[in-house]
Amino acid sequence: MRRYLTIEKSVKHCPSPGMLDVFLLQVSVRPDQTFILYQDQAHTYKDIDLKSNQAAWALREHAKLTKGDCVSIFAANEPAYVWVWLALSKLGCPMACLNYNIRTKSFLHCFKISGAKVLIATPALKDAIDEVLPTLLEEGVLVYYLSRDSFYDGTHSLLDKVEASSEDPIPPSFRSDIPPHAPAVYIYTSGTTGHPKAAALSQTRVLTSCTVTLLTDLTSNDVLYIPLPLYHSAGLLIGLRGCIQVGATCLLRNKFSVTEFWNDCRKYNVTAFQYIGEILRYLCNTPKKDNDKHHNVRFALGNGLRTDVWREFKNRFGNITLYEFYGATEGNAFLFNYSNKEGAIGRYNIFLRLLQPFEVIKFDLERNEPVLDHRGHCIKAARGEPGLLIAKIVSTNPFEGYAGNKSQTEKKIFQNVLKKGDMYFNSGDLAVIDKEGFVYFHDRIGDTFRWKGENVATTEVEDILLTVDFIDQCNVFGVPVPYHEGRIGMASIKIKQDKSFDGEKLYDKVADYLPNYSRPCFIRIQDSIEVTGTFKQYKMELVKEGFNPDAIKDPMFFLDEKVKSYIPMNNRIYQDILEKKLKL
């Protein structure tokens, strides 16, 4: 934390210091140090500063940008993403970070709610732009491609204009008087259900977002590998922003590659990397090699790491310190596993409660609402009992809400929680605090389901299934069954290469480790498990498709207690279930 305070003192002369001030300080301190590594290119802090100056002048002249105008960027990880962000910051313009996987209606929704009138895109995504271009042009949107040549379709080239512009510094007056609460970036939720929401992150939030990285031992001598998308807060604000804070080097890759990951680490002398969700599991599932421990990685920073993978990863790839944390892009709840306790996301202590007070409260999954006492207040969950994680909304720990979506913002706020007048942010996540005060992620509210009067946590079932030797990936969810209360378990799985499905082996595993209400009744085999750009699994479409063998082309299996195996699912079994001839 000492490094953060040192930089903060250095920019104290600024009327409203922000991320840009920290970057400019690093340019003055270490102009020739490599800031961005990308493919076989190295860009120094000075290089990126000058390029962002050129971009700012070009956008001011050609797009007529002025302070407060929002610009959307639609691109994969590359140096241009960084210097465009800095250029917009120099002009006092917020940036909307569009997920490069969105298309048509979802694209237009995300673009419009940011209020942007300018779009900057990579030519590689031209097909996606073409689908919505008539609508954009009709609404007066200026579309710029990161190219030197125009496509003569109403869009504009940007690189040629940037290269023709001055490298002179941008006057601070262009961005003066921007209040700390003004939006700096818009980061979108993954949109696993419905349209994505745009979290409006303020100048202050972006400035302090590096706190996560500073809790590690990242220094200016490190090379931090960011295989995560920059359109997400983890890559942009924790990774890139963290590098800016300490003057470190950042290695970018367009998209995460499990086959090239360790080669990249060795080639670029990586000393730290970020992870999210299943990345470490993917790495553990690769064939073992003699050089698995031949690298210079000291630590990794991320979230969503399960205990079994934690152990396997460290045993196989060496004594890499794993810094697990918990936090939502738009939320005010933050936890950090400073003691490196396997599987934990943090620890409940008096200091954290003072800085960012949070609670775990009893939650009724069937009614999808908190359990209340006779006074109408929430009830704290007991130690060891899963409950809803909520964080208190106070002036020092605000919830900034969603752009253009007041109703969604209000839905995330609980009022009069523990006493009259208090307000808490609803994380939407279930957590457990053990007797020692360690906090563990349990499941998401939308993922947990009830069957036979019991709550089933999908993450716990997935942990068991992934120990079966032929299962590479899995996605567990509950599907409705006619004439039955709740939802019954179903698992979509991907089989490992050179392996085959074994119904008896899978049955033995679930029978040994899971209670009967948690055992997946249906297994669906897929060629791939669809995930978002940040490796969150899509469940809603699978839930809607259910377990009808006539409607699903993928192979399916049914848990048959009589033969103690998973047998091929067929129309006869399906009809017996519908006609209540088969007991579930």
From TrEMBL:
Pfam families in the cross-refs: AMP-binding, AMP-binding_C
EC number: 6.2.1.3
SUPFAM superfamilies from the UniProt entry: Acetyl-CoA synthetase-like (SSF56801)
An annotated GO cellular component: endoplasmic reticulum membrane
Membrane-related topology note: Multi-pass membrane protein
Span of domain AMP-binding enzyme C-terminal: 460-536
GO MF terms, alphabetically ordered: long-chain fatty acid transmembrane transporter activity; long-chain fatty acid-CoA ligase activity; nucleotide binding
Localization annotation: Cell membrane
Domain AMP-dependent synthetase/ligase stretches: 26-337
Taxonomy, superkingdom: Eukaryota
Keyword Signal applies: no
Single GO BP term: bile acid metabolic process
Enzyme class, first EC level, given as a word: ligase
Catalysed reactions, semicolon-separated: a very long-chain fatty acid + ATP + CoA = a very long-chain fatty acyl-CoA + AMP + diphosphate; tetracosanoate + ATP + CoA = tetracosanoyl-CoA + AMP + diphosphate; a long-chain fatty acid + ATP + CoA = a long-chain fatty acyl-CoA + AMP + diphosphate
Keywords: Cell membrane, Fatty acid metabolism, Ligase, Lipid metabolism, Lipid transport, Membrane, Nucleotide-binding, Transmembrane, Transmembrane helix, Transport
Ribosomal protein in keyword set: no
PANTHER family recorded: LONG-CHAIN FATTY ACID TRANSPORT PROTEIN, LONG-CHAIN FATTY ACID TRANSPORT PROTEIN 2
Protein family membership: Belongs to the ATP-dependent AMP-binding enzyme family.
The protein, known as: long-chain-fatty-acid--CoA ligase
Organism from which the protein derives: Pyxicephalus adspersus (African bullfrog)
